[in-house]
Specification:
The protein has 13 helices and no strands. With 258 residues, it is an all-alpha fold. The chain has one domain.
């Protein structure tokens, strides 16, 4: 399942190469706010510099919510329409904004809490730092599922957050694999100035991963007495493998010659 997930995510991105680049250009423009503007504003006001980082980060996450819907379309073998991005933005901005605020609270707790606990200089402070560390790790891994769940399962914010943790604790190894792939995508994107795979490629990776993982729950619903550790992935992925098809290097570069 994991090998096919990598293959499908790669070819989904490859098949929409130009669209991925265009959507990533939107991220690049928005990232100039939190990454470049603060260095200019800090000479005039530290508060203004921090505010620009916060606002810029929120804008990026809100845009991610809209593009994640396009990434869902790609994962579902549909051709995303750029005209629908605005519709997706209107549809997702509220939950994306709440998600951004929640991430802001997490960052604030870490920034304020770690120095406070470190200055305690005792075992209680150390325990608090360790607890905070693992809480952030678990939240980070679980939050990977937010946009895919918003696009594929539910639209209510509280239910999305709950399902993030349900899927995480039921699929911890999968969440770690998804995170490792996410890090690889981010590192690889640095060499292309975030054009490829970029944040759009990251969202496609998440959408594909959750889409395939949900096949497990469809199977368990139909077969409630089955062993949860013995999911017949080869059988469940037959349709998906047929739709992705066999690919060759020639076909990837010159698809009209296949």
């Amino acid at each position: 399942m994991l090998t096919f997930m990598v293959k499908k995510a790669f070819f989904d991105m490859w098949d929409h190469f130009l669209g991925v680049v265009i959507m990533n250009l939107g991220f690049i423009v928005l990232l100039t706010v939190p990454l470049l503007l603060p260095s200019t504003l800090v000479e005039f006001s530290v508060i203004a510099a921090i505010a620009s980082q916060v606002i810029g980060g929120i804008l990026v996450i809100v845009y991610m919510g809209a593009i994640s819907m396009a990434a869902r379309d790609i994962a579902n073998y549909e051709r995303p329409e750029f005209g629908r991005v605005y519709e997706y933005l209107k549809e997702t901005w509220r939950t994306s904004l709440l998600f951004a605020i929640l991430w802001l609270v997490v960052v604030l707790v870490v920034v304020v809490g770690v120095p406070v606990y470190a200055n305690m200089g005792n075992i209680l402070g150390l325990i608090a730092i360790v607890f905070l560390f693992w809480a952030v790790v678990i939240w980070t891994l679980a939050s990977q599922f937010f946009f895919p769940i918003r696009a594929q399962l539910d639209t209510k914010f509280s239910k999305i957050i709950r399902k993030c943790f349900v899927i995480f604790f039921d699929n911890t190894f999968f969440a770690l694999t998804l995170a490792i792939g996410s890090v690889a995508i981010i590192v690889g994107s640095v060499f292309t100035a975030l054009l490829l795979p970029g944040i759009t490629g990251l969202l496609i990776w998440h959408q594909v991963g959750v889409k395939l993982r949900l096949l497990k729950y469809d199977y368990l619903e139909e077969n409630p007495d089955t062993n949860r550790r013995s999911i017949p992935w080869d059988a469940l992925l037959i349709d998906e493998r047929e739709r992705v098809g066999k690919r060759t290097l020639r076909g990837m570069i010159f698809p009209w010659k296949e």
